[in-house]
Amino acid sequence: MKVKAALAVVGVFLLALGGCAGPAVPGADVVTWQNVEFSARGTSVMAKEDDPVSLLEARVAAAIMAKANLLALVKGEFITGGVAVADLMFEGQEAEARVEGFLSRATVTYEEPGLPEPNTVTAIATLTVSRRELKKLERYVE
Fold first, then answer.
1. CB 110 within 8 A of CB 123
2. Domain that holds residue 21
3. Hey, is 24 helix, strand or coil?
4. Number of structural domains found in the chain
5. How many other β-carbons are positioned within 10 Å of the β-carbon of residue 65?
6. Residue 9: strand, helix, or coil
7. Which of 69, 86, 106, 128 is least surrounded, with the fewest CB atoms within 10 Å of its CB?
8. 24 with 36: CB under 8 angstroms?
9. In sequence order, which ranges of the chain are alpha helices (DSSP H)?
10. What are the pLDDT tens digits along the chain (142 aa)?
11. What are the residue ranges of helices labelled H in 19-97?
């Protein structure tokens, strides 16, 4: 009986010291025992200052960039590269990073235009998944 009580006290003490965070997840912003939250940023430049259509276009572009960055963070990127050699000398190098996938529950928020630079729009895409969903997702990562 004393052993059970001692283990309970040790368990409460460890929770108090460690908080409620779960095991670390690479790339995650917030980690709890049940959920993992990822977020990524995307930035676009407005074509014309003080133009509502330009602002809308920049918001769409920034949101797409933020979602692509978020998908790359959660799923990973497919990277291809090549090096050109001619006459036993380096001629050139090419690299490409491609992201393909589907994000259905990502939310997008926007920072005020002009922060950190004028005529820029920044979008922040956030996705919260349960640990169970993250385990399923890991099976499909290439």
1. yes
2. 2-140
3. coil
4. 1
5. 18
6. helix
7. 86
8. no
9. 2-18, 52-74, 131-140
10. 565 555 555 454 444 444 455 566 666 777 777 888 889 999 998 888 888 898 899 999 999 999 988 888 887 777 777 878 877 777 788 887 777 777 778 899 998 776 667 788 999 999 888 888 877 776 655 5
11. 52-74
